[in-house]
Amino acid sequence: MMKFNTHSGRYFVTSHGNGWAYEVIDLQTGDSLWFQDDDANQFEAATQNLENEDAISIYFESLC
Q1: Which of 19, 32, 35, 53 counts the most CB atoms within 10 A of its CB?
Q2: Starting from the edge strand earliest in sequence, which strands make up the sheet with 21-26, in order?
Q3: Residue 45 gets which letter from DSSP?
Q4: Which residue in 46, 5, 44, 43 sits closest to 27, CA to CA?
Q5: pLDDT by residue (tens digit) across 8-64?
Q6: How far is CA 49 from CA 2, 29, 34, in A?
Q7: Which of 32, 6, 36 is CA-nearest to residue 19?
Q8: Verdict on whether the full-model pTM lies above 0.85
Q9: How is the chain split among helix, strand and coil, in percent rounded to 5?
């Protein structure tokens, strides 16, 4: 398991099983998202290896 904050510190990411699953927490709102299997792969690709915070924000706006 790997845990880290994104560059600005807004999101806290926990990676499970070498990217098999991701839990992402918005530290400003407390909202969280969970992705696993193919969804985790798609999320990682869409967010440029979890580095594009704008793309992560879009997921939160769409799903929360």
Answers
A1: 35
A2: 2-5, 11-16, 21-26, 32-36
A3: H
A4: 5
A5: 999 999 999 989 999 999 999 999 999 999 999 999 999 999 999 999 999 999 998
A6: 14, 23, 16
A7: 36
A8: yes
A9: 30, 35, 35
Pairing type for strands 21-26 and 11-16 reads antiparallel
- Residue 5 has which token pair? 């904050």
Q: For residue 12, give both structure tokens.
A: 């806290």
Q: Beta strand 32-36 with 21-26: parallel, antiparallel or unpaired?
A: antiparallel
User: Quick one: angle between helices 38-46 and 53-63, nearest 10?
Assistant: 130
